[in-house]
């Protein structure tokens, strides 16, 4: 009897297994059911750069936005997927006839674009290849162990960089063909700013002297040699024209001054006092001097800010607050390291953290090329065309801005 029960159990188990296997052999229900039509296939007729994110019909990898026009798209953005050489972009908005999409990090002269729409069985392919180009490139020649400090660009688009040396600072020249060469040894052991000052002269701050070096003779230019008090430190300089400049100076114990420099008489005088401000950068734009820096209160570093003073000959008017990062919570702990301007008046701001560069105009502050640029930014300088150079700790990034920098008084 016991053996009969065991046999019965085995028989039942085998029977259930047989039923299970028989069921598995049947075809699953297809998603393409007979008689159930899908949505109409998307049709792509045109792809163009979004004018708010581009100029000169250029689309940049990772940051560019394109508008796709056609038919049978979904008005619900998440129901559309756009692939660029197989990599999906970020759909920002859509209607039945258009899709705005941020392109992924894809580069090519003939990128294949394909659109899929939820519940449509077929793809929509763009008949032509689409060009997507990189907005940035790293300038080679810099060794990983290099410690870089400041950057300048002259009229021939030669990029000049100050770097750590022993015992003084060295100045590196990087030609437009990317050839790289150590050129000049400075007189100081620190560097806070390097500016091209015309007449083949490179002006360097960062010590107790302001002086220039001739890029042709690769030696100190004796025509400009200013020595403040021994306890003072030069911080930054910018040029009005071939005869006048303004210089940021730290006076002991820790006072921020703006000095006016007469380049003909090689003399200086006080133009403005910024009390205990730690001045990081100055820049002249349209008859105004902009000053960036931060204060300390009871030993605590306060959020960075930017002020401006109107220029009246060799004197400066009262300072006026332009931008206070205290009003922008995302950046209260970041320090402004450098400032510069585009030709149309946008203020470009280099940061030591959070974002590499911010752009400020008409009360709007926003990150610049955030997905493809990383902090820290030590210095910024415009070339003679559409390129902005970002200096990092041991890298130089050449940025295609598709716009030009503001006129610069030092390129005379």
SSE arrangement:
Layout: H1 2-24, E1 43-49, E2 65-71, E3 80-84, E4 87-88, E5 90-94, E6 98-102, E7 108-111, E8 113-117, E9 124-125, E10 130-132, E11 136-138, E12 148-153, E13 159-163, E14 170-174, E15 180-185, E16 193-196, E17 201-205, E18 210-214, E19 219-226, E20 233-239, E21 244-251, E22 255-262, E23 267-273, E24 278-285, E25 288-294, E26 296-297, E27 300-301, E28 305-312, E29 315-324, E30 336-341, E31 347-351, E32 357-361, E33 364-367, E34 379-382, E35 387-391, E36 396-400
Antiparallel strand pairs: 1-2, 2-6, 3-4, 3-8, 5-6, 7-10, 8-9, 11-36, 12-13, 13-14, 14-15, 16-17, 17-18, 18-19, 20-21, 21-22, 22-23, 24-25, 25-28, 26-27, 28-29, 30-31, 31-32, 32-33, 34-35, 35-36
Helix vs. strand class = mainly beta
How far is the first residue's CA from the last residue's CA? 113 Å
Q: What's the total count of β strands?
A: 36
The number of distinct structural domains comes to 2
What's the CATH topology label of the largest domain? Neuraminidase
CATH architecture of the largest domain: 6 Propeller
**CATH homologous superfamily of the largest domain?**
TolB, C-terminal domain
Continuous helix count: 1
Describe this protein's structure.
This protein is mainly beta. The chain folds into two domains: 43-132, Sandwich (Immunoglobulin-like), CATH 2.60.40.10; 136-400, 6 Propeller (Neuraminidase), CATH 2.120.10. Helices cover 6% and strands 47% of the residues. It is built from one helix and 36 strands. The chain has one helix at residues 2-24; strands at residues 43-49, 65-71, 80-84, 87-88, 90-94, 98-102, 108-111, 113-117, 124-125, 130-132, 136-138, 148-153, 159-163, 170-174, 180-185, 193-196, 201-205, 210-214, 219-226, 233-239, 244-251, 255-262, 267-273, 278-285, 288-294, 296-297, 300-301, 305-312, 315-324, 336-341, 347-351, 357-361, 364-367, 379-382, 387-391, 396-400. The strands form ten sheets. A four-stranded antiparallel β-sheet has the order 1-2-6-5, with no helix packed on it. A four-stranded antiparallel β-sheet has the order 4-3-8-9, with no helix packed on it. It has a four-stranded antiparallel β-sheet with strand order 11-36-35-34, with no helix packed on it. The protein is elongated, with a radius of gyration of 31 Å. Residues 1-32 have low confidence and may be disordered.
């Amino acid at each position: 009897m016991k053996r009969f029960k065991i046999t019965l159990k085995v028989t039942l188990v085998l029977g259930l297994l047989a039923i299970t296997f028989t069921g598995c052999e049947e075809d699953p229900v297809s998603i393409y059911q007979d008689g159930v039509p899908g949505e109409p296939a998307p049709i792509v007729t045109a792809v163009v750069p979004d004018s708010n994110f581009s100029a000169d019909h250029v689309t940049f990898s990772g940051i560019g936005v394109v508008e796709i026009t056609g038919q049978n798209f979904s008005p619900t953005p998440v129901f559309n997927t756009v692939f660029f050489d197989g990599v999906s972009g970020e759909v920002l908005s859509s209607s039945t006839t258009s899709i705005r999409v941020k392109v992924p990090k894809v580069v090519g002269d003939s990128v294949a674009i394909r659109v899929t729409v939820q519940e449509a069985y077929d793809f929509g392919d763009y008949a032509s290849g689409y060009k997507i180009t990189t907005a940035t490139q790293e300038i080679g020649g810099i060794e990983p162990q290099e410690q870089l400090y400041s950057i300048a660009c002259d009229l021939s688009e030669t990029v000049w960089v100050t770097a750590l040396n022993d015992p003084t600072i060295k100045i590196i020249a990087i030609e437009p063909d990317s050839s790289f060469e150590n050129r000049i040894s400075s007189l100081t052991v620190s560097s806070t700013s390097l500016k091209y000052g015309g007449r083949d002269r490179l002006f360097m701050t960062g010590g107790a002297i302001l002086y220039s070096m001739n890029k042709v003779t690769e030696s100190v230019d004796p025509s400009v040699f200013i020595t403040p008090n021994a306890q003072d430190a030069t911080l930054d300089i910018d040029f009005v024209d071939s005869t006048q400049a303004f210089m940021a100076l730290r006076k002991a114990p820790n006072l921020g001054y703006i000095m006016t420099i007469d380049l003909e008489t090689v003399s200086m005088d006080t133009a403005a006092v910024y009390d205990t401000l730690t001045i990081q950068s100055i820049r002249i734009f349209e008859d105004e001097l902009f000053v960036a820096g931060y204060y300390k209160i009871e030993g605590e570093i306060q959020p960075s800010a930017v002020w401006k003073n109107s220029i009246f000959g060799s004197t400066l008017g009262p300072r006026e607050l332009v931008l206070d990062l205290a009003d922008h919570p995302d950046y209260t702990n970041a320090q402004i390291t450098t400032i510069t301007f585009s030709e149309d008046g946008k203020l470009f701001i280099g940061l030591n953290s959070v974002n590499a560069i911010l752009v400020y105009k008409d009360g709007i502050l926003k990150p610049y090329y955030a997905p493809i640029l990383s902090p820290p930014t030590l210095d910024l300088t415009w070339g003679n065309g559409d390129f902005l150079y970002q200096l990092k700790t041991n890298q130089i990034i050449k940025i295609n801005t598709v716009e030009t920098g503001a006129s610069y008084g030092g390129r005379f």
